[in-house]
């Protein structure tokens, strides 16, 4: 035995010496070898050959005729049996799916070994009779043939599986819809309580979403494990979506596709129809052009370099690509100012359809009796240049209305979404006992929100853009140091940045509006402010900028050992799940209402005042600028298991196992956490208080002797598992089982006190009777910056 193989066996023994954990996409085959009289045949050579790649592995039957192949990659196999004095038997077209364990009992006829008996594909599909666990296998044919509008392989399992209920919007099941696709409850478990595996490696993020949704062309099959009594399965409160990527074979295979939706068959929106028709009969708001294109392809085979390398039966590759371009239209009825109103002229702004009274505007210069603006036209000298500039970004009405504040603009928001994905996988049979595979997936997407003024208008409401770029890497290696021992090692890394920003107005220069340069230079983000209008006009402007980076790393190992009627496995997994980034920062947010321009100071009086008039005068009712500091959170997960599948006889198999898992509380590499509240410590405000003891301070991570971990993690997560599968007759199996499962918790960016600060706009010092500041210099004392945990024990004091 060479040195390398001795080292592998030593590693296997060390791994098996401790209870360890792992989850895998691989299946298995086991059974017994008998003669035609039913007597067991020992020391028969059993060979398992991948029909696509030609890669084979062998074992020998035990004293009771038992044989077993564990860690079997999903594929179609031939099971061959040889024994002197008997005819060779070839059982062809034996399909092993993801996490599928088959019983294949075989009988040999007496004869010469040079003779052979072929069992062909006409046999009925094999029934899985070894495990109490249940689930739905979605093979390649189902993935290709069943309707799947979003081409989402995870969601395909949802549609055809029992005891599975989707809870999200069904239109959000595309490759960029991680959040929508994960709104699923399995076997009565919590929504977003499931686990997602890709080639045996978890791709589940901190919010229990699949960070990437592979294109159908890259997938071999998917198994949705709903009721699983295998101790190998953990960190799920419902089910596990176990997906296997497709591998190349000895033959070149490929496919290409493309399709579009028929534009002439689209229906108009409700408001588009409600706008009516022109005199010539055409719609005033015609159906918007909404093209959709989806295209992609795949190609794979052996690695062959002419005259240099022939990878048949050894090295294989598979690559896929997919992209789509989607346009969607939505219509809304909005209130916008007329050309006169945008200039401060409200002489035609009536309170009712009969035009018997004007919506009268008043000067906000008195805390008692207010004076109406003469002619209901704000003098040019009183118009605030910033308010005028902001109002100019409203579009003009496109509908005739009768009174002030009535919806007068029908806006159609055109959303343009796009996504592209590429997948590559390489498989290498290094030696007869060592196989390695590696895969890489990347996708990028952009997703707009409705922009009802159009994206050419920086003031358009809802102009946000969501951008995602996802990378996922999986490396697997399978070692078979002996015919009855298999070692499986896995490493994975994935990263899922999630960025939201304002598309139309990003980088706008607000000093040209009249904002002071000292104010604009302090803004954490240059874009159009978010403007809230109460009472007469629609909101406009946008929100801010935010970014989250979901990423994780994992390593796991599993050892399987076949011992006669027992098939043992044990494994280990180490995983770190991160979320980092920055909470929303804003370019300013201002709210306007009729209070400052109504007839009575500090009140909103019907028929008087207007939010648009208050804006033109430059007097917000409230406002803020939000700044934030970078933050990071993560948890570390450990799992251990040992499991035995005990085949008592040809009909009954028992499953026994125990699992232990531990997940730390929330931690932060930057110590950006509040980890608790100390009810015994005396608050520093005590120096200003007499008569009572002021107890209670925030516990910042790593400060004043406090810990660095939030929450109280459960250290008692033991999970016994027991089950049985009884094969009553060839086409009937009864299953049952019991197990304890621990649902994973979810977390996103925690926003502790001190890491985000909203500097408030001071609108008034007398109850909004008279304004204290204006848009000309909205924050005269500057924009406050967050100090993180710098306040220490003084955090939160006024």
The largest sheet, given as strand count, sense and whether it forms a barrel, is: 13 strands, antiparallel
- Bin the strand percentage: 35-45%
Record field, number of beta strands: 37
Uncertain spans: 3-22
User: What is the percent of helical residues?
Assistant: under 10%
Radius of gyration: 34 Å
Write down the overall mean pLDDT. Answer: 88
Global geometry? elongated
The span between the termini is: 75 Å
Give the class from helix and strand content and strand pairing.
Answer: mainly beta
Reading side by side through the largest sheet, how are the strands ordered? 17-18-21-22-23-24-25-27-28-31-32-35-36
Q: State the helix count.
A: 9
What does this molecule look like?
The protein is mainly beta and 798 residues long. It is elongated. The chain starts with a helix and ends in a 38-residue tail after the last strand. It is 7% helix and 41% strand.
């Amino acid at each position: 035995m060479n040195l390398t193989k001795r080292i592998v066996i030593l590693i296997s023994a060390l791994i098996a010496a401790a209870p360890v954990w792992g989850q895998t996409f691989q299946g298995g085959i086991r059974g017994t070898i008998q003669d035609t009289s039913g007597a067991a045949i020992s020391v028969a050579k059993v060979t398992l050959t991948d029909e696509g790649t030609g890669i084979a592995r062998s074992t020998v039957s035990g004293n009771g005729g038992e044989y077993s192949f564990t860690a079997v990659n999903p594929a179609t196999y031939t099971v061959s049996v040889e024994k002197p004095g008997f005819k060779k038997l070839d059982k062809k077209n034996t399909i092993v799916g993801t996490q599928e364990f088959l019983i294949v009992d075989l009988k040999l006829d007496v004869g010469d070994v040079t003779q052979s008996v072929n069992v062909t594909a006409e046999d009925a599909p094999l029934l899985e009779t070894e495990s109490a666990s249940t689930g739905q296998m979605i093979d390649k044919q189902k993935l290709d043939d069943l309707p799947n509008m979003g081409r989402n392989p995870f969601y395909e399992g949802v549609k055809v599986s029992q005891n599975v209920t989707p809870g999200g919007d069904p239109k959000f099941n595309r490759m960029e819809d991680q959040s929508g696709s994960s709104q699923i409850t399995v076997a009565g478990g919590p929504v977003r309580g499931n686990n997602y595996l890709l080639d045996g490696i978890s791709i589940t993020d901190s919010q229990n979403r699949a960070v990437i949704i592979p294109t159908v062309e890259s997938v071999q099959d998917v198994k949705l494990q709903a009721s699983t009594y295998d101790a190998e399965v953990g960190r799920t409160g419902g089910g596990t979506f176990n997906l296997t990527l497709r591998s190349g074979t000895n033959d070149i295979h490929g496919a290409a596709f493309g399709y579009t939706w028929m534009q002439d068959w689209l229906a108009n929106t409700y408001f588009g129809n409600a706008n009516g028709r022109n005199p010539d009969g055409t719609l005033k708001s015609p159906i918007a052009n909404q093209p959709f294109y989806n295209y992609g392809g795949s190609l794979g085979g052996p690695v062959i370099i002419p005259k240099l390398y022939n990878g048949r039966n050894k090295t294989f590759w598979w690559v896929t690509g997919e992209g789509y371009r989607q346009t969607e239209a939505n219509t809304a009825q909005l209130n916008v100012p007329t050309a006169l109103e945008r200039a401060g002229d409200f002489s035609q702004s009536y309170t009712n359809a009969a035009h018997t009274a004007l919506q009268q505007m008043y000067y906000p210069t008195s805390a008692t009796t207010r004076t109406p603006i003469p002619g209901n036209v704000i003098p040019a000298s009183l118009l605030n240049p910033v308010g005028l500039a902001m109002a100019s970004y409203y579009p003009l009405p496109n509908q005739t209305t009768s009174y002030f504040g009535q919806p007068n603009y029908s806006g159609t928001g055109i959303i343009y979404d796009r996504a592209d994905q590429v997948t590559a996988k390489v498989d290498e049979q290094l030696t007869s006992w060592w196989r390695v595979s590696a895969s890489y997936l990347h996708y990028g997407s952009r997703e707009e929100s409705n922009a009802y003024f159009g994206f050419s208008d920086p003031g358009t409401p809802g102009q946000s853009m969501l951008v995602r770029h996802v990378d996922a890497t999986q490396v697997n290696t399978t070692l078979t140091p002996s015919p009855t021992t298999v070692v499986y090692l896995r490493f994975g890394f994935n990263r899922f940045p999630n960025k939201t920003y304002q598309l139309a107005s990003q980088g706008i220069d607000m000093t040209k509006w009249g904002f002071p340069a000292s104010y604009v230079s302090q803004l954490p983000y240059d874009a159009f402010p978010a403007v809230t209008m109460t009472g007469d006009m629609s909101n406009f402007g946008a929100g801010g900028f935010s970014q989250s980076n979901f990423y994780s790393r994992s390593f796991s190992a599993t050892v399987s050992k076949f011992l006669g009627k027992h098939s043992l496995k044990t494994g280990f997994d180490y995983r770190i799940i991160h979320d980092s980034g920055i909470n929303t920062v804003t370019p300013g947010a201002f709210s306007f209402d009729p209070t400052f321009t109504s007839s009575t100071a500090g009140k909103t009086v019907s028929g008087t005042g207007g939010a648009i008039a208050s804006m033109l005068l430059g007097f917000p009712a409230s406002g803020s600028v939000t700044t934030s500091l970078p933050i990071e959170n993560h948890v570390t997960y450990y799992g251990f298991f040992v499991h035995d599948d005990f085949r008592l006889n040809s009909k009954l198999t028992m499953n026994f196992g125990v699992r232990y898992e531990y997940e730390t509380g929330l931690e932060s590499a930057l110590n950006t956490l509040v980890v608790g509240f100390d009810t015994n410590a005396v608050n520093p405000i005590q120096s200003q208080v007499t008569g009572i003891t002021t107890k209670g301070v925030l516990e910042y991570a790593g400060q004043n002797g406090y810990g660095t971990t939030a929450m109280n993690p459960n250290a008692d997560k033991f999970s016994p598992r027991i089950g049985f599968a009884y094969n009553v007759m060839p086409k009937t199996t009864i299953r049952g089982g019991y197990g304890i499962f621990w649902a994973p918790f979810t977390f996103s960016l925690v926003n502790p006190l001190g890491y985000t600060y909203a500097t408030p706009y001071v609108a008034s010092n007398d109850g909004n009777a008279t304004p204290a500041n204006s848009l000309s210099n909205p924050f005269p004392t500057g924009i406050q910056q967050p100090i993180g945990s710098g306040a220490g024990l003084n955090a939160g004091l006024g």
